[in-house]
Amino acid sequence: MRRAWRAIRNARCSSPVADTAVFGRSSAALRKAVAGEGCYLIDADGRRYLDGSGGAAVSCLGHSDEKVRAAVHAQLDQVAFAHTGFFTTDVTERLARKLVENAPEGITRVYPLSGGSEAVEAALKLARQFFLEKGEPQRRHIIARRQSYHGNTLGALAAGGNAWRRENYQPLLVQCHHIAPCYPYRDQQDGESAEEYGLRVANELEEKLVELGPDSVIAFIAEPVVGATAGALAPVPGYFKRIREICDTHGILLILDEVMCGMGRTGTLFACEQDGISPDIVTIAKGLGAGYASIGAMLCQEHIYRAIADGSGAFQHGHTYHGHPLAAAAANAVLERLIDDGLVAGVNAKGDRLVAALTDRLGQHPHVGDIRGRGLFRGIELVADRETKAVLDPSRKTHARVKKAAMENGLICYPAGGTIDGKHGDHILLAPPFIISDDQIDELTDKLARAIDTALTN
Ligand code: PMP
C-alpha cells in the first residue's frame, strides 16, 4: 500500500500527459498507471481499477507478485543479458526444462522469445524449415481460421483471419488460407449435435487440403480457445481430435497458438490438454511473463527438432533478445506460482464462480446472447435480440462504449467487435488474475453489468 501511495504522490508532482513522444493512442484518452496492487491498477489520481482482463489475458498473478519481483531483482544483480550466440544461462535452461516437464506429450524443445508474435513467426518458419530438411521444398501453404488472431508481425498477421487488422497490409502478406472457426453459438444447426457440428467444421480442413493439394501445405494453425477476435470461443468436444487426425492423415503439421489461452488460463497449463491432443508446435506468451517480463516461447516435438539437428544443424532464425535471462527469471518464478503454488489448480473453481456470478447477473439480459469459455477465460457476446441472435448496429461500436463505461466504473475488461463471415459480434473478454477473490468476482460482475447497461442506453 505504501508503495502505491508513494507512486501516486510522485506522479501528481510530475507534468500531466498532454502531448507525448510515445507513439501510441491519443494520450489524452489514457490514464497514467502509477502502481499495481494485487488485482488492481492504480492511476495518478489514486483511482483503482479492478483488472478483469489481465490487460489482454496477461496478468495472471495480478500486479504485485512478490516472488516474481524478487526473482527479477536477483537475476538483475547476477547477469542481465548474455547473447545466445555465445552463452546459455541457468535460468533459461531451467525455464526450458520446466516447460518441457509440463508440456503436452512429445514436446521436448523450447525456443524462448520476447512475445506472442515472435513465437508465431518462429513457429511458421520452423514448420517450413522442417519440410525443407525433409526434402519437400514445394510445401508453402499455411491454413488458419477466419476467426483468429496470431499477432501483428507480417507472417503472424497473414495467418490471422481478422479482416480489419489485415486490410492495410494485404499486399505485404504471404498467402494463407482460411477455413471456418468452431463457433457453435452462431453456426451449429438445429438438430445437429455438438459432436456432429465439430466434425462438420473440422472437415473443412480436409476439404481445403484436397483443394490445395496436401503435398503443398505446411501446417494448420489455430488457437485452441479463441481470444481477441471472438471472446473466449472454446471448441466443441471432438473438434480438435478430428483436426489432429486430418493433419496426421495428410502429413501436415499442427501448430497451436496458446499465446493467450495457455499458461493455465483455461484451467490446465496448456489449453489443448482438455481436447486430448498434442500439437507438433505450440506457442505461448502472455501468461508466461504475467506482465513482469516480455517473454514468449515456441515449443516443438522432438521429431521436428531432430529433422533440423540431424539435417542442416540449425534453425535459421534468431532475435537479439531471445532467451533473455531477466525474462527467463521472471517466467521461472511465474511457473513456480502457477504450478508449484497451485494457482492453476484453482482456476476452474474460480472460473465456475465467475460464470455463476455472470449468469446470475446477466444470464437473462435482453442483449447478452452467450456467456462462454473455460476456466478464467470467459467471453460474453452481446446481441440486439436474443431470439434471432441479430447483431447490434456496428456503427454504435458498443464494445468501445462498454470499455469506456467500465473504466469509468473502475473496471478493466477487454471488449472487441468485428465482422467475420458477414456477422458482426460485439463481445467482451474477461481474463482476471488467478488470485481474484470471491468478493472481487462479485465486484467485477457488478461493474461489468452496469457498464453494459450504460453502453447500451447512452
Ligand atoms: N497470438 C494470440 C492468440 C494472441 O492473442 C496474441 C496477442 N493478442 C498474439 C499471438 C500476439 O502476441 P504479442 O502481442 O505478444 O505479439
TrEMBL record:
Family: Belongs to the class-III pyridoxal-phosphate-dependent aminotransferase family.
Keywords: Aminotransferase, Pyridoxal phosphate, Transferase
Required cofactor(s): pyridoxal 5'-phosphate
PANTHER family xrefs: AMINOTRANSFERASE, AMINOTRANSFERASE CLASS-III
Organism: Palleronia caenipelagi
CDD domains referenced in this protein's UniProt entry, alphabetically: OAT_like (cd00610)
InterPro entries, A to Z: Aminotrans_3, Aminotrans_3_PPA_site, PyrdxlP-dep_Trfase, PyrdxlP-dep_Trfase_major, PyrdxlP-dep_Trfase_small
SUPFAM superfamilies given in the database record: PLP-dependent transferases
GO cellular component term of the entry, any: cytosol
Lineage of source species: Bacteria, Pseudomonadati, Pseudomonadota, Alphaproteobacteria, Rhodobacterales
GO MF annotations in UniProt: pyridoxal phosphate binding; transaminase activity
Name by which UniProt lists this protein: Aspartate aminotransferase family protein
Keyword Transferase recorded: yes
Source species, domain of life: Bacteria
